[in-house]
Amino acid sequence: MYGTTDGTPPATGAVEVTGFQGDWQLTVGGQPYTVKGLTWGTDGGTKPLLDSAAANGIRVVNGFWLQPGGGPGSGGCVDYVTDPTYKTDMLTEFAKWVEEYKSHPATLMWNVGNESVTGPVDGGGMGRE
User: Fold this and answer.
1) Chain segment 106-115, per-residue pLDDT in tens
2) pLDDT digits (tens, 9 = 90+) for 83-107
3) Are 67 and 13 in contact (CB under 8 A)?
4) Angle at alpha carbon of residue 64, lines to 126 and 29, rounded to 5°
5) Apex CA 109: angle with CA 105 and CA 114, to 5°?
6) Any idea where the domains of the chain sit in the sequence?
7) Cα distance between residue 102 and residue 40, in whole Å
8) From CA 76, how far away is CA 5, in angstroms rounded?
């Protein structure tokens, strides 16, 4: 999230990421923009967060989290690369919430990842990936 708490409207306009590994630039409305935080868990409960962020001049990076990927030593986690059901379900879910929140004034962009999701470790316990 980025912005002020003094009610200043968040920057508007096209969001663009340019550059290359180690030298990325983010612009909003053609002006440099700095992201100072993130949110995650985009779903039906996200609207109040976005409403509050917009009311305080803050833009949000809406996150979608995948389960940890499968493969050797994965602890039985889903393999989102080769599991067609999981892949289809996630793409459908992402599209649903993008459609719902894409025009919200607090939405800056979207992020997809799995680094903050916990999964089974050592016989079914929960732990950070």
Assistant:
1) 999 898 876 5
2) 888 889 989 999 999 999 999 999 9
3) no
4) 145
5) 135
6) 37-128
7) 15
8) 44
